[in-house]
């Protein structure tokens, strides 16, 4: 099987052109392909499929092999992959588990439209919202020394969230228009170098307090930007922008 490896600010994915629908959608095979010792190694695996009238369809799996909800960085990488395959020229639309998305690519930077966010809930001083995947957002001090794995694992497996899981984002304000986000990801069950839907969720909790319509977001794997328009406590016209790169391509036997 031919595959491509992409990364979007360090969140990395095995990409497969599955327009012939030949890929075996088997949890053990996908988990093995994502294994960093016994397989290709990735945070997730993404299938590109056909789905008229859209330019393509996104099917996303976490590295535990389970099919999951929307992946923002994966969506950006899939747009770059579809562009590489000459599926579209500059702008595209695709369908994913959370609905349809528009996107554009310029010089390796992908701008992806995210779904509208109807509400931001509170859990004590923290926030809970869904940006295509479920996210918990907690503001902390000294984020570079914060124990993201231990604290993220605790919240993800706590009574309120253990059944369906949740991605846990830790945020520190850097300036009036920049935050730093680190994320413990559901289905990877570890910290990833960035999480697109998590960066989006974190950005919205920051934007809800002021009048900004965009914010810069630093992650371990690189820098992103989030644009959003507020309408009371709802957000729309939400865009996630950042680089998406093809790292290598290869062939692998699936058995
Ligand atoms: N692990 C997430 C999906 C991928 C999210 C992340 N990689 C992103 O870029 O949004 C979940 O199961 O909810």
TrEMBL record:
InterPro entries: DAP_epimerase_AS (IPR018510), DAP_epimerase_DapF (IPR001653)
Pathway: Amino-acid biosynthesis; L-lysine biosynthesis via DAP pathway; DL-2,6-diaminopimelate from LL-2,6-diaminopimelate: step 1/1
Active-site residue list: 71 (proton donor), 71, 195 (proton acceptor)
Residues annotated as binding substrate: 11, 62, 72-73, 167, 185-186, 196-197
Cell compartment(s), UniProt: Cytoplasm
Chief location of this protein within or outside the cell: cytoplasm
UniProtKB keywords: Amino-acid biosynthesis, Cytoplasm, Isomerase, Lysine biosynthesis
E.C. number(s) listed in UniProt: 5.1.1.7
Family: Belongs to the diaminopimelate epimerase family.
Assembly information from the UniProt record: Homodimer.
The protein, known as: Diaminopimelate epimerase
Originating organism: Chryseobacterium taihuense
């Amino acid at each position: 099987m031919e595959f491509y490896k992409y990364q979007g600010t360090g969140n990395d994915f095995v990409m497969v052109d599955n327009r012939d629908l030949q890929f075996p959608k088997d949890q053990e095979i996908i988990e093995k392909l994502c294994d960093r010792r016994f397989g290709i190694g990735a945070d997730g695996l993404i299938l590109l499929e056909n789905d008229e009238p859209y330019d393509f369809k996104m099917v996303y799996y976490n590295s535990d092999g389970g099919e999951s909800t929307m992946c923002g960085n994966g969506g950006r990488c899939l747009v770059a992959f579809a562009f590489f395959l000459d599926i579209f020229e500059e702008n595209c639309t695709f369908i994913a588990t959370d609905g349809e998305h528009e996107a554009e690519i310029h010089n390796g930077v992908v701008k992806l439209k995210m779904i509208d966010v109807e509400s931001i809930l509170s859990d004590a001083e923290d926030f809970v919202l869904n940006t295509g995947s479920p996210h918990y957002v907690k503001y902390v001090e000294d984020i570079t020394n914060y124990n993201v794995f231990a604290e993220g694992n605790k919240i993800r497996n706590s009574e309120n969230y253990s059944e369906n899981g949740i991605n846990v984002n830790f945020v520190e304000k850097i300036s009036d228009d920049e935050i730093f986000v680190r994320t413990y990801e559901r289905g990877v069950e570890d910290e990833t170098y960035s999480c697109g839907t998590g960066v989006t969720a974190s950005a919205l909790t920051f934007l809800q307090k002021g009048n900004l319509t965009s914010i810069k977001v630093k992650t371990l794997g690189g820098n992103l930007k989030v644009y959003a328009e507020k309408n009371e406590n709802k957000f729309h016209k939400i865009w996630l922008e950042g680089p998406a790169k093809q790292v290598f391509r290869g062939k692998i036997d699936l058995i």
